[in-house]
Write a structure and sequence with these properties.
globular, mainly beta, single chain
């Protein structure tokens, strides 16, 4: 099983980024898939999840701004992030089952 995130970078406040997570060795469609983030000096926290049936959950801090989705045919997980704020700065990780990706850095700064 391997998870590889991409799409992070530097963006100005109010901007958008789309994170991607490529999966291999399993199917995202078969279980819950998650996005977590960890800011400097803080614990890793849940951002969003998507269930095998398509149900979703968002942390209050990102609700209405972030959208989690997946492409079953490509075995990809996504996180569309809009209206980004400086407090969204963190390393973002995808997770499924007991497996984690290596993370991708998101910096929101002017």
């Amino acid at each position: 099983v391997q998870l590889v995130e991409s799409g992070g970078g530097l963006v100005q406040p109010g901007g958008s980024l789309r994170l991607s997570c490529a999966g291999s060795g399993f199917a995202f469609s078969s279980d819950y898939a998650y996005w977590y983030r960890q800011a400097p000096g803080k614990e890793r926290g849940l951002v969003a999840w998507i269930g095998s049936g398509g149900g979703t959950y968002y942390a209050d801090s990102v609700k209405g701004r972030f959208t989690i989705s997946r492409d079953n045919a490509k075995n990809m997980l996504y996180l569309q992030m809009n209206s980004l704020k400086p407090e969204d700065t963190a390393v973002y990780y995808c997770k499924t089952l007991s497996y984690w990706g290596q993370g991708t850095q998101v910096n929101v700064s002017s």
